[in-house]
Write a structure and sequence with these properties.
heterodimer; A: 256 residues; alpha/beta; Rossmann fold; 2 domains; 4-stranded parallel beta sheet; 11% strand; globular; B: 472 residues; 3 domains; 4-stranded mixed beta sheet; 23 helices; 12 strands
């Protein structure tokens, strides 16, 4: 592994950013390059396999994991703009293969070099401040997997604090689940709705102009709920603000 | 009790629309979480205590047979009896036999989830025995003929006004105009009614938080002292407990007690921690003449050596449900059987079968907060996933979901096709949304759009843009 000034990073774009919000991918690219990384985006990636994993389908999960391992093995690091997908690779891939097999060893090696974007910038590359401006009051939701599996809590707040003009208004229960939960939100739609409605109340109570988080699943859930309710701040991925790429419409908002 | 777990979806939807219940559940969220946090912040070594508690239980489970036999020996030495119950039926039969032997008309009971698990009360009642719950919460739900909705706070789904109405309905013979506005007045009335029952009871039945192999003692923790009166006053005391309640020594039990109350109610210690070891000895001022322990297996020994073994470390503190967003939303009754919340989602399928309890391990967002607060560090989400795997293997997963997943996985395993599909989807969804940026309705995503708008894709997929040379 070439742990030089310019580590070679494979960007795991995530299925949601790929399809719904490519701007998150471009924000991640910019942040990584500004931090001195050489970045590539392997074509042979689709998804981390979590939908199959959490549905109990281990065989398909393992097949998808093998594909990800093949595609990302050559890189110094794997970085994803999502705590959920990064957590899947970093914490669960090794469990998919029998111990003492070569596949298990490969999964472990990949797991060890996989990071969520903001954590990677703050803890691995040691980025301390970003030279961007965002003149708004924001509130930050701690997505569950990032928070509890990867220990992401201070890193985004530290980097957001360096953004000129940005004010952080913490919401109550920022660490409570938003009710997304992957397939949960459609399988148990009314329970999910009850949870997200509680969450959006807390979001609105902050009076923030923008809601940020590090996972598109949660963000689309909360944005979609507030748009249905007809009130609430605009919603963006934290990478967009950190990269200074906030010109385009927020999640679910109209063009222009 | 009747199994209503297969109706989880219906149960939970009813719960979500029950305003009274929702008000009560609001208190769970506020009370328990803050109190636990406060207690733990005061104890810097809490994380280390969790590790030690887990190690004690892991060691015990590895040598369960040894400690159970040692425990039995000590109980016999103290003059008590030990009964091994393979399943719920065994346990009911054993206890009814003991009650008949004692010619029991009235039985008082301390709070016991194991008694709920084996459905003890209806069995004794059918035999003509008057069973009286003495834990205030249990007493209230007994008046209402309801099962508990929480393992340590059985009546947490109720509001004060409901309890007042129940007391006025059931405590006939007391003045109609009496004041019952304050919780303390309700407590006083329950206490007065129960006092005579304690004195009348022929048999007292309690559960156990710990069984100590070293001494043959059983330990209960309560906040009301009702357990003490239940086990000391009647002439027979029956302890009903499941196998995994065993701990090697008193020191071990004390270690685990340090994390139990803090995790449960945020207390440093429960108000009463009561040990009982055998019947009354010559010279003792009080205590039962006969002392029985009913040790229930009910599928637990079969969990040893399986991915579900970790669940046997559970000390029934309730922290997982107190921190669970799904439990907060629907309450304990929606889970349809004795145990609710994350611990119930793991344990219930082992006890009643995954074919009946299939919803439970699925109804989780996997937010992981249950595992984060579990004093015994039980990997609850991981075990719920194990259940989902069993369901998938046995084709119990709903057909539509399975088909959808299969189709998705087909593409996810073929990147070229996948990218063609996502490019097309992006274009279609984008066109459907027009300039609005979101969709209010989408036939294939009704579960989503029933309650929320669906953000539309921004335009072309990231991969398409990347491939066509847009690199920044």
């Amino acid at each position: 592994m070439s742990l030089d000034q310019h580590p070679h990073v494979g960007l795991f774009i995530t299925c949601l950013a790929d399809l719904f919000r490519p701007s998150v991918g471009f924000a991640a690219l910019k942040l990584l390059r500004d931090a001195g990384c050489r970045v590539d985006v392997p074509r042979a990636q689709t998804c981390c396999g979590q939908p199959a994993y959490n549905a109990g389908d281990r065989r398909d999960t393992a097949a998808i994991a093998r594909q990800v391992i093949d595609a990302f093995e050559p890189f110094d690091y794997v970085v994803a703009p999502s705590g959920s997908c990064a957590g899947m690779i970093a914490k669960h891939y090794p469990d998919l293969f029998d111990e003492k097999t070569r596949e298990h060893a490969r999964a472990q090696a990949l797991a060890a070099k996989t990071h969520e974007l903001v954590q990677f910038l703050a803890d691995v590359i040691n980025v301390e401040a970003l030279d961007v401006k965002f003149d708004k009051t924001v509130t930050y939701h701690d997505s569950c997997t990032g928070l509890r599996e990867l220990g992401i809590r201070d890193q985004p707040r530290r980097l957001l604090a360096s953004v000129a003009g940005l004010k952080l208004a913490e919401m109550e229960e920022s660490e409570t689940c938003c009710g997304f939960g992957g397939m949960f939100c459609v399988k148990y739609a009314d329970i999910s709705d009850h949870i997200v409605a509680g969450k959006t109340d807390f979001v609105r109570q902050t009076g923030a102009e923008v809601l940020l988080a590090g996972d598109l699943g949660c963000l689309m859930n909360m944005a979609g709920k507030m748009q249905r309710q007809g009130s609430g701040p605009e919603v963006r991925h934290v990478a967009e603000v950190l990269a200074g790429m906030t010109d385009g419409p927020a999640i679910g908002e109209a063009d222009g | 009790m009747e199994i209503r777990s297969p109706d989880f979806a219906k149960n939970s939807s009813r719960a979500l629309h029950d305003a009274q219940l929702q008000r009560a559940l609001g208190n769970v969220k506020l009370g328990f979480i803050a109190k636990r946090r406060k207690a733990i912040d005061k104890l810097p070594e809490f994380e280390r205590l969790r590790d030690e508690a887990r190690a004690i239980k892991e060691h015990t489970l590895k040598h369960l047979d040894l400690y159970l036999e040692a425990y039995e020996k000590k109980v016999l030495e103290a003059g008590g009896h030990v009964h091994w119950a393979a399943d719920a039926r065994d346990a009911r039969r054993i206890i009814l036999d003991i009650c008949r032997e004692a010619d029991a008309k009235t039985v008082t009971k301390g709070k016991s989830m194991i008694a709920e698990e084996v459905a003890l009360n209806p069995h004794l009642e059918q035999a003509g025995i008057d069973v009286v719950e003495t834990d205030l919460g249990e007493y209230i739900i007994q008046l209402r003929n309801e099962p508990p909705s929480h393992i340590i706070a059985p009546a947490v789904h109720l509001n004060k006004e409901q309890v007042e109405a129940d007391f006025r309905r059931c405590h006939t013979g007391l003045p109609d105009g009496r004041d019952l506005d304050e919780p303390v007045q309700l407590l006083g009335e329950a206490r007065a009614v129960l006092r005579q029952k304690y004195l009348d009871a022929d048999v007292g039945i309690t559960g156990a938080n710990f069984l100590v192999a070293e001494t043959g003692s059983s330990i209960i923790v309560t906040n009301e002292g009702n357990g003490d009166l239940t086990q000391i006053l009647p002439k027979v005391h029956i302890v009903i407990a499941s196998l995994e309640k065993i701990t090697p020594t008193l020191e071990d039990a004390s270690q685990i007690l340090r994390v139990l109350a803090r995790s449960a109610t945020g207390q440093e210690f429960s108000v009463y921690t009561t040990l009982s070891t055998g019947p009354k000895r010559p010279g003792d001022p009080d205590g039962p003449g006969d002392y029985h322990v009913v040790l229930l297996d009910n599928g637990r020994s079969a969990m040893l050596g399986t991915p579900f073994e970790d669940m046997l470390r559970c000390i029934r503190c309730g922290a997982c449900m107190n921190h669970c967003p799904v439990y907060h939303s629907v309450g304990g009754h929606a889970y349809g059987w004795v145990y609710g919340g994350p611990m119930g989602a793991v344990l219930t399928p082992t006890l009643i079968g995954i074919d009946k309890a299939g919803h439970l391990p699925n109804a989780s967002t996997f937010c992981g907060r249950c595992e984060a607060v579990c004093p015994m560090r039980i990997p609850l989400p991981k075990m719920m996933r194990h259940w989902r795997e069993r369901e998938f293997e046995r084709h119990l997963t709903p057909v539509v979901q399975r088909a959808g997943l299969g189709a998705w996985a087909f593409f996810a395993r073929r990147p070229r096709l996948y990218h063609a599909l996502t490019s097309m989807s992006a274009a279609v969804l984008r066109a459907m949304a027009g300039r609005k940026g979101r969709l209010a309705r989408l036939a294939l995503a009704r579960g989503w759009t029933r309650f929320r708008d669906l953000p539309a894709p921004q335009g072309r997929t990231f991969q398409a843009q990347w491939q066509s040379g847009k690199r920044a």
